[in-house]
Write a sequence for this structure.
């Protein structure tokens, strides 16, 4: 089996293991796991002929900010930066998009584009701050990015942010739904990030700096610039996620996003194997699970929706464990390769 097929197959290992663990929990509450999972996935991904009864559309809507925030976490981790500040960067992006969309008078397409650029810019600035603190002052990035989340919530709460003007709203792809053109932006971003990481010199330098910083240093690669650029890009993607939520779903600033919790970006990035394709796949899966846990579990099966959160937690746990063993096997395989 080729390396690509092995990695694709490896993406589904956490899913199967989390379903198995979830099945045990369902048995403990006296329910049939197969029927419960059928109800969960039908409510999360099913589509019926009746208008407004297509959960697949809702899953795609929920997946949009998850893809962008997951890409944000992926870029940070690929550069060797342990960032957990995506939620705060989303708040800054949402605030910037809301302000620009409500205070400027511009033509329709140009207005939304300017608002999204502003969201990405402010998110990028927020992502750059902890990178500068880490690279030049040796401030732990976990602490700085974690602290910036509540700071972002406080700062945007002090601003008066108007409703989004109609000229700045992202048009829905399907009438009478909240699935906007943001999903196309998210998919385009995933493709661009893949090309950046694996098909450009900058991507090679970034990943080399993360996996072997001493080798990168003695190889003549830049030390600070790859991380600074990566964290700026990471923050811009998270800010763009907040902007897309404001312009395409809520049409006003929100501090609690419909599909993204504080650490969902890390869940999507890790479960997706820190690869853009995996991020897209698991963002869609997580978006459907969010809907299915409310409708399929709580309303139809009478099972607490917290079981859906437990499945997501198991997925993250098994994804992290699987990645550890995968890297260990790769290292052992590399050690077996003769030098001559």
């Amino acid at each position: 089996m080729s390396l690509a097929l092995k990695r694709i197959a490896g993406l589904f290992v956490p899913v199967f293991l989390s379903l198995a663990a979830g099945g045990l929990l369902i048995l403990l509450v006296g329910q049939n796991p197969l029927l419960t999972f059928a109800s969960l996935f039908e409510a999360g991904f099913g589509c019926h002929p009746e208008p407004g009864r297509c959960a697949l559309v809702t899953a795609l809507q929920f997946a949009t900010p998850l893809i962008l925030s997951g890409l944000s976490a992926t870029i940070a981790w690929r550069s060797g930066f342990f960032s957990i500040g995506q939620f705060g960067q989303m708040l800054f992006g949402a605030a910037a998009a809301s302000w620009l969309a409500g205070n400027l008078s511009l033509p329709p397409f140009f207005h939304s584009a300017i608002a999204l650029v502003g969201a990405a810019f402010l998110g990028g600035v927020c992502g750059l701050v902890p990178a500068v603190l880490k690279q030049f002052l040796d401030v732990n990035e976990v602490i700085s990015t974690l602290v910036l989340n509540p700071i972002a919530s406080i700062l945007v709460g002090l601003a008066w942010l108007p409703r989004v003007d109609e000229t700045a709203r992202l048009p829905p792809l399907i009438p009478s739904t909240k699935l906007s053109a943001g999903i196309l932006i998210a998919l385009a971003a995933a493709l661009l990030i893949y090309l950046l990481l694996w098909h450009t010199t900058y991507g090679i330098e970034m990943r080399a700096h993360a996996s072997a910083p001493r080798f990168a240093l003695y190889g003549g690669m830049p030390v600070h610039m790859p991380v600074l650029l990566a964290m700026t890009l990471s923050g811009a993607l998270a800010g763009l996620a907040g902007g897309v939520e404001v312009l395409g779903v809520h049409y006003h600033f929100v501090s609690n996003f419909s599909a993204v919790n504080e650490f969902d970006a890390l869940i999507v990035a890790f479960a997706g194997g820190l690869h853009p394709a995996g991020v897209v796949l698991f963002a869609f899966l997580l978006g459907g699970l969010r809907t299915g846990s409310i409708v399929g579990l709580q309303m139809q099966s009478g099972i607490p929706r917290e079981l859906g959160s437990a499945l997501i937690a198991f997925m993250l746990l098994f994804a992290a464990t699987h990645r550890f063993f995968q890297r260990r096997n790769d290292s052992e395989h590399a050690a077996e390769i003769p030098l001559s």
Residues 44 and 279 are 18 Å apart (CA to CA). The radius of gyration is 21 Å.
